[in-house]
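note to self: dont lose this again. the chain is below, predicted strucutre after it. 371 aa total, dont forget to put it in the shared folder this time
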Amino acid sequence: MSALFFMNGFMVGSWAPKIPEFAARFSLSESALGLIILVFGIGSLIAMPIVGAGISRIGSARIMRPMALVLALSLLAISVSPALAIAAVAVLGFGAAVGGMDVAMNANAVVVERDMRRAIMSSCHGFWSLGGLVGAASGGVMIAVLGSLGHAFVATVISAGIVFAVWRMARIDGPTPGEAKPPLRLPKMALPYLLGAMALFSMVPEGAVLDWGALFLRQERGADLALSGLAFGAFSATMALMRFLGDAVRDRLGAVTTMRLSAAIAMVGMAIAGFAPGSAAVILGFAIAGIGIANLVPIAFSAAGNAPDLPPGIGLTVVTTMGYSGILLAPSAIGWIAEHTGFAPIFAAMPLLLGAVLAASPLAATADIAD
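---
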């Protein structure tokens, strides 16, 4: 499982350094490029409920593997697109492959957790973060040395190699032969939507730091270019580290206690970042917030995948779709608000969202693996 999480993160990370080249190739303005990035998000949000419905019918593994192959080819398709309209369709497909595979591999990770009777979700997300870091860090170098097409080809070969290497290792799940297939409808119970809100409130701060943390440091706290780059660097480093440690913490303390502690730590970190007058303290706040936010979403995903009285994949689809909307769509709204208020009040308000997660922590009890 961890290899596929790494591969998904690697492809997302590999896309980031290609964005400037993509804009230059088609002579896009900032607003036009923003629309292309929005197309990526729309593709993800369209694919997630479709994949979730398919998981309840045929299982996660039978969807995860072909989605991974599509994702492996997506970056190459974007790179060879001769016209903007074709490239936009390729970006839509890229987003759909990322989002669809994300739902399927999280659902499969829940199956593995049940079989192993211990938590693995946080470390899986840690490998996703590691893949994103490797993809982003190596992408710029490869583009400089091999060109955009050469970089896409190498990324495709690496990703496809990972998929084929672990093809037979996916945990096969889904209805048994002759078992009645569940109806395809949204759940009527409140739990998945409440868990989805928890994921959303956890991912909005992550998206805010990712897209606006460096600009906040540079414009409002006087940091230079090198120092401002540490905004997301410090946040992502502590988040990745804590995700690799999170499963052991959750197995020892339980999902509810882990989520409470994580939400409280995240609140403290975001409050420091929002109210601190100097750039060093802001970076420290982001680093503390990364420690707290790291395990909120993995626990919410595990809780959704194990929610009682829900078909496999349906609860997880609701939570992932709601959660990822926070990191895909919320940053645009944050940018609009910041034009009128500045970034400091926005980061200072993030503890309110995390406080709601803290209050709702008991809902995560289904994440614990039953003995």
